[in-house]
Amino acid sequence: MKIGTLFGLGVGPGDPELITVKAFRRLQESPVIAYPKKLKGSKSYAHRIVEVYINPAEKEMLGLVFPMTKDEDTLRTEWTKSVEAIYGYLAQGKDVAFVTEGDPMLFSTFIHLMNLMKSMYPDVPIETVAGISSFNGSVNRLGIALADGDDYVAMIPATEDMEEMRRVIETHDGIVFIKVAKVLDAMLNLLEEMNLLEKAHVVTKVTSDEEVIWKINELQGSELNYLSCMVVRK
């Protein structure tokens, strides 16, 4: 029997209307929809984006748990379980569409899943469908031209290394910092030191029905959702 194809579908930053025509078609054609599932059973962000397009009665829904831990044994066990669960369907000749917010090849859960699948089951055909990422969504919602002409642009995870963050800001015209929530106060202090605070903007869950565009001068001491981006345009 022919092995099914594993599709990694980028479903955009939050607004269901930002899913591509191709990703929509793959959702319709694939008999199995795989998605990240939270331990308590609540819907993942990617699942919420695509649920308007899926009739669970017509699909086999495969929720997969990807634990947020640094314990290597736990990670190896749970990721292996997910790959084996997907392969169980692929071995039956069924295509599986794995949905992920943003783009499947950019800071995505799908990257590790894909690599592990290639290692364990190298005969599985894998295809990805590009998606709109949160940094695209953020600059469009803010009405900010991130790059023009010969501008230098960066899109990086914000880290605790403020000297490196300073270097990135100094050497680029437009920067999108993802994963900024965990170092928000330090980033705000740095921008104030550089006299660039008024050039910064922060958006949470951009384009979704839970989107928040923050006022930068009211953010100090706030606890933001993980799905937050900071845009700095000099």
The low-pLDDT segments are none
Shape: elongated
Rg, nearest Å: 19 Å
**SS content category:** alpha/beta
String of helices and strands: EHEHEHEHEHEHEHEEE
Numbering strands along the chain, what is their spatial order in the largest sheet? 3-2-4-1-5
Instruction: Give the DSSP E fraction (strand runs of 2 or more residues).
Output: 15-25%
The biggest sheet, with number of strands, parallel, antiparallel or mixed sense and barrel status, is: 5 strands, parallel
Number of beta strands:
10
Overall pLDDT metric: 94
Portion of residues in helices?
A: 25-40%
> Whole-Å distance between the termini?
57 Å
Total helix count? 7
Describe what this molecule looks like in 3D.
There is one protein chain. The chain is an alpha/beta fold. The protein has seven helices and ten strands. Helix 2 links the parallel strand 2 and strand 3.
Which key terms come to mind for this protein?
five-stranded mixed β-sheet; 234 residues; alpha/beta; five-stranded parallel β-sheet; 7 helices
Give a topology summary:
Blueprint: E1 6-10, H1 21-29, E2 32-37, H2 45-50, E3 60-65, H3 72-90, E4 96-100, H4 109-120, E5 126-129, H5 134-142, E6 153-157, H6 162-170, E7 174-178, H7 184-193, E8 200-204, E9 212-213, E10 228-233
Parallel strand pairs: 1-4, 1-5, 2-3, 2-4, 6-7
Antiparallel strand pairs: 7-10, 8-9, 8-10
Helix pairs in contact: 3-4
